[in-house]
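Give me structure tokens for this 439-residue protein.
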Amino acid sequence: MTDPSAPGDRAGDRYARELERHLDWLDSFTSTALGVLASASGIYTYLGVRSLLENTGAWTTFAALSYSIAVSVGIFVFWSYMLRLLPAVRSAVSRIGLLLAMVLGCVAIVAMSSWLNAAALAGGAAVETHMATTVQHYQASLERAHSNAVAGQSLVRDVSRVRQSFNDLSELEAGGTLSGFSGRGAVFRVLSQKGAELAGLEQQLNDAAEPIEATFAQGNAILSGMRGVAVGSGTLEDRTVEFSEDAVELAGLITQLRQLNPAPLVSRAARDLSEAVVLPELDGSTAEIQQGQSNTITSVLSLVEQRADTLATAAAEVEALPPPDEAVYAPLSAADAVIVYAGNFVPAWAGAISIDLLPAVLVFIIMVVQAAIRHGRGIRHHDDRMTVGEMRAALAAADLLREYDDAPPMPDTPQHRGAGMPINRGQPPEQPPSPRAVD
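Here you go.
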């Protein structure tokens, strides 16, 4: 009776043998391909290490070369282990353990190689991105400092308005409208005193306009040069040095603009306007006139305090404006810049990681194929593959068995029983093995 499952078993064996032939052919160049990938990763690792090392001597080159060779060997050995062992194991515990080991190895490879590969692929572009970003920060700080300084300088209109009000009051007092007594007496001198103080403050505010605009124009010129350095030609190291010098100069100009802001000056002048008052001697010819002068001076002082509060409030609003950010340029190496601006260089990171972790895809492919081979052969399969040496040994054993079967039987006599047999005293002669005992 034939086994109904035999045709299916034969088909599964043919399917398994076909997959094994494919694996044998692929295995002939897998090690070479893995070595090429490991060597390429080592080359980019070498370039990344050189970007981190400041010295350029022979020892630096030797150190970078040694590290890159160690990385290449480590990658090759690690993935060779994974390609051979992980598809071969069958138990779930062993497979999970090797998968965890592979994950840990992938993390180690990214830590020791992939980020350096990314630095070699996009390190220069990352440094240029850092310089361009720094230019934007400096530009924002310069514009903020200039805006605050212009807002402080615009307080000249408030000062001019208050000064004009005191001048008008002094003219009214000269005509006798305020105190009721015409002339340039004590009240007129108080009004003239405050008007003169405000005139001096107004002149200072007008004088600050030109330095503010000149400093701002100089800062814009430096910013234009920094933009050219960030995207210009020449070695990256020389451009970084030039960019650093421009950044230091621009930081000084931003600080200068903050100091040119006249808002604190107006705030102090407003406080002095109400507190520092020199009261003149009442010069009325009669007690009635002097009493009128005293009352008018009291009213004038109250007015001065109100105008001072107005100026102080305006100055406080300017001082409350957001200050410019502290823009400081910190030079970055190519490797550090790639990490800081990783989001801008996703393709470079993907390529750097893929060149190191691509063999993981091969590992999973071989796992799937090995599982298909086992499924095709089934549970009762036996290994029918033989090496050339095993085949020769099997043919030699078959020849020996055939010669034994073809040999004529020896007569059963004492002479023939002992002929050709070694003498073994005290033990029965050894019987030749029967054909059925040979496997």
